[in-house]
User: Fold this.
Amino acid sequence: MNGVLSPRRVPVVRRVPVALFLLAVVCAVLVAPAMALAAPATSLLTISTDVKTVAYNVEAEFTGTLTDELLNPVDGYTVQFQRSIDGATWKTVENVPSTLESYSHQYVAWYAMTRAAWFRFSFAGDDTWAPSLSQKVLVKPRVILTTPVAPKSVRAGNTFTAYGYLRPRHASGAVYVKIRCYRKSASGAWVLKRVVGARDVNYGSYTKYRARVSLPKTGRWKLIARYAGTAKFATTQSGARYLRVK
Assistant:
């Protein structure tokens, strides 16, 4: 008007898409590092066994589970089955894959026991799940201990030799085995009357235990060898040898 041109106004509505775009860029820049630094989720690993002792050179079975904090299974991962003599230094026995779909337990491992050892499962983790260790469990094998060999009948007060065999081989000259002497009472109960230490001697790949025994009273007796146990092996008891004292 009056020959003067008014400046052209840009509608505000045209600026809104640009503002939204810039806001989205800023949010992406702020959120991306946070997502990249997100910590892996906590994983929980367990191990269990139904036995504390097993026969010598017999396999003990170990089972385990890998779960989240709510105890939901974390499936599809392999864990390490580890063994330790002292409970501090560990060696991997094998890698154990998940068996959840084909077995009642998620992880299963076996080990033939020839000396006491600690066992555990170990999970290395990844970008999704944090590493984890199970608790440790101790299993001891029993030794092989034969029933004492002795006469079927002896005289009261007379000395005789009772012997048997122990495996694996132990140090010669030591006393790892004691012979427990029980007498049958009038009520029929077996009453412990005497305990005799047996000397160990080398016998091929075995150890032979031997003791001199004297039973003071007439009646029905039985002899049982007992291995007290060590750091390597569990307490073990033999079968009974029955004899009559005249």
User: Anything to note?
Assistant: Residues 1-7, 10-16 have pLDDT under 50 and may be disordered. The helical segments are 16-36. The CA atoms of residues 99 and 106 lie 5 Å apart.
